[in-house]
Amino acid sequence: MAIGDIRIEGLKEVEKALEILRDSLPPDKIEALMLNYAKNVADDMERRAPHGPTGNLIRGIHSKLLSRNNSDQPAPAIAAVDRKIAPHAHLVEFGTQKTREPNKARILYDKDTGMFFGKSVGPMPASPFMRPAWEGLRPAILRDIEAQVRKLVEWR
Fold it and tell me: Model-level pTM?
């Protein structure tokens, strides 16, 4: 291939090397690695998350493998908070600036203390636990991914 005065040679060899690389990385092995990293991030999120009276925030943290869109590509793995268990996770992560008043149907009762609460909720400072977990583990995870991929490629 020639572009102006520049000539590129060896594209067929590069294409062949990329095919070998693709075939060296079976999706099931990559998925297992990714799920393991997602579990590590979820564990760190649990350690960093504030402990509330119900424990729902920590109970809602999990990791899982999503479904494959394409059978040739590995499925992504995530660490997340289940919004059905802890719908308030974003409020904890980012905080709030103003007083919130839930509707009357949402007034809560704490059976352990016998007290009603939830008529109005004041501003809440941010207590990040998701982003710091990822940011703290990201460098080590990326280094490990590189090392694991190198092992898989060299194995073939």
Answer: 0.72
